[in-house]
Write a structure and sequence with these properties.
The chain has 3 domains: about 130 residues, HUPs (Rossmann fold, 3-Layer(aba) Sandwich), CATH 3.40.50.620; about 120 residues, Serine Threonine Protein Phosphatase 5, Tetratricopeptide repeat, CATH 1.25.40; about 160 residues, DNA Cyclobutane Dipyrimidine Photolyase, subunit A, domain 3. The chain is globular, with a radius of gyration of 23 Å. It has 21 helices and 5 strands. It has a 5-stranded parallel β-sheet with strand order 3-2-1-4-5. By secondary structure, it is α/β, with parallel strands linked by helices.
Length: about 475
């Protein structure tokens, strides 16, 4: 018998229940299906696709050590995947297919179609739980509904994990069969996709080994300092593991276990830095469960339907200035340059720039969500959508509509000496620690830095009035 492990956003061999089950079931073959046109439709970033591809090369090395061949198919659209998967299984006499479940609407539709088609030809397809700490749909309120508020959701998750701890899947054993096909050659560049700069690739080396080294270094050196350091973009205060989690090069469970080892097995008490970082893992969990429980989130709809009535501004000039880091607000422009240059943005700044776009510019959050996906190396539907809807006051447990970050105050608080701004907006580097957050008109002209495209005070009032009118 031959089993197939269908890899998707789970590019690892450890804590990989689908792979483990495939190996235990029979002689196993691994498969990755590239769908470049589907990725284009989803707005995935070239830097993200390149990261996946480099991750696949690393995965192939790990699988080779286990004598598991990795095969490669290019199927442009997910609607064509079921038939292609059936033909692949028939070609290689595969009896069973194993994969880890995904939670977006399109992903679930694709998998249901695959399941039905394969079943009709006598091939079983089994979905495993390998993407979250807890199975979406199993964490509900007392009224059997999905949580819409994070704090009680996190409390329920911690209680479930206390009574039934997350168990890492065992590492698969090396296969001994010599009858399996050879691995396919993988391309070094995805055809039709731009390859990012070599310096960017060097900043984000791919693979599970890299992810585990980052996790270990963070756990040993910085996790305990997470609370005082995490909001300062000039400091290395975060784990920078989000790209590896999004691609599944490391699992949320592996991150949780590493944190608990540092914290004597505790998830809520103990070291405040560690417990706070675990809370951030649960925020990721929250958004994954929301996407599963509320399919319209995958369809560009707000979590709060009443906010569909917000009259967003149609201002292409302001949107372009935001995208091109020409807003005249140094911290916003610095953050946007970081995103476009590195494929990543510090989490505090994601909130700052998102709230600036949706509140001060009053531009539809979906414009920002799309731009982020087109540039983020860690772009994933649940986290990106959740973050944007939080900032735009349209989502579950989102910021109240009257809470509008002042980006200048945020800059002064979290980049007090202007280190982050000086790095990403070097034309302002000569300014004092005080003036760099909001340069004077004279300095702006002298340094060729634009005026602010919108008045922060009046635009804040405008946003509050736009949302208050819904009440």
């Amino acid at each position: 018998m031959t089993a197939l492990c269908w890899f998707r956003t789970d590019l690892r061999v450890e804590d990989q229940p689908a792979l483990l089950s495939a190996v235990e079931d029979a002689d196993a073959i691994a498969l990755f299906i590239a769908s470049p046109e589907q990725w284009h439709q989803h707005g995935d970033a070239p830097v993200k696709v390149d990261f996946w591809l480099r991750g696949l090369h690393a995965l192939k090395t790990e699988l080779t050590a286990l004598n598991i061949p990795l095969k490669w198919l290019v199927i442009d659209h997910w609607k064509d995947v079921p038939q292609a998967l059936l033909e692949f299984c028939q070609m290689h006499a595969i009896d069973s297919v194993h994969c880890n479940r995904e939670f977006g609407v399109n992903e679930r539709r694709r998998d249901r179609q695959c399941y039905s088609l394969l079943k009709g030809h006598g091939i079983t397809m089994t979905g495993h739980h390998g993407g979250t700490l807890l199975i979406p749909g199993t964490v509900k309120t007392g009224s059997d509904s999905y949580y819409r508020v994070f704090t009680p959701f996190a409390k329920a998750c911690r209680e479930k994990l206390r009574t039934a701890p997350y168990r890492l899947a065992a590492a698969p054993k090396k296969q001994t069969s010599n009858k399996l096909p050879a691995s396919d050659d993988l391309p070094s560049v995805m055809p039709g996709w731009d390859a990012p700069a070599a310096t960017l690739q060097q900043g984000w080396p791919a693979g599970s080994d890299v992810a585990h080294k980052r996790l270990e270094q963070f756990a040993q050196a910085r996790m305990s300092q997470y609370v005082p350091d995490r909001d300062f973009p000039a400091l290395p205060g975060t784990s920078t593991l989000s790209p590896y989690l999004a691609a599944g090069m490391i699992s949320a469970g592996q991150c949780l276990h590493a944190a608990m080892m540092v914290n004597q097995g505790e998830t809520e008490t103990g070291n405040r830095g560690v417990s706070t970082w675990i809370t951030e893992i649960l925020w990721r969990e929250f958004y994954q469960h929301l996407v599963y429980g509320f399919p319209t989130l995958s369809m560009h709809q707000p979590m709060r339907p009443d906010t569909n009535a917000v009259v967003w501004r149609d201002s292409p000039e302001d949107l372009t200035a935001w995208c091109e880091a020409r807003t005249g607000v140094p911290i916003v422009d610095a953050a946007m340059r970081q995103l476009v240059t590195t494929g990543w943005m510090h989490n505090r700044l994601r909130m700052v720039v998102a709230m600036y776009l949706t509140k001060n510019l009053l531009i539809d959050w979906r414009r920002g969500e799309s731009f982020f996906m087109q540039h983020l190396i860690d772009g994933e539907l649940a986290a990106n959508n959740g973050g944007w809807q939080w900032s735009a006051s349209t989502g579950a447990d989102s910021a109240p509509y009257f809470r509008v970050f002042n980006p200048i105050s945020q800059s002064e608080k979290f980049d007090p000496k202007g280190q982050f701004i000086r790095h990403w907006v070097p034309e302002l580097a000569s300014l004092s620690d005080r003036e760099i957050h909001d340069p004077s008109a004279i300095s702006r002209r002298a340094l060729n830095y634009p005026d602010q495209i919108v008045d922060l005070k009046s635009s804040r009032v405008r946003a509050i009035e736009a949302f208050a009118s819904l009440r």
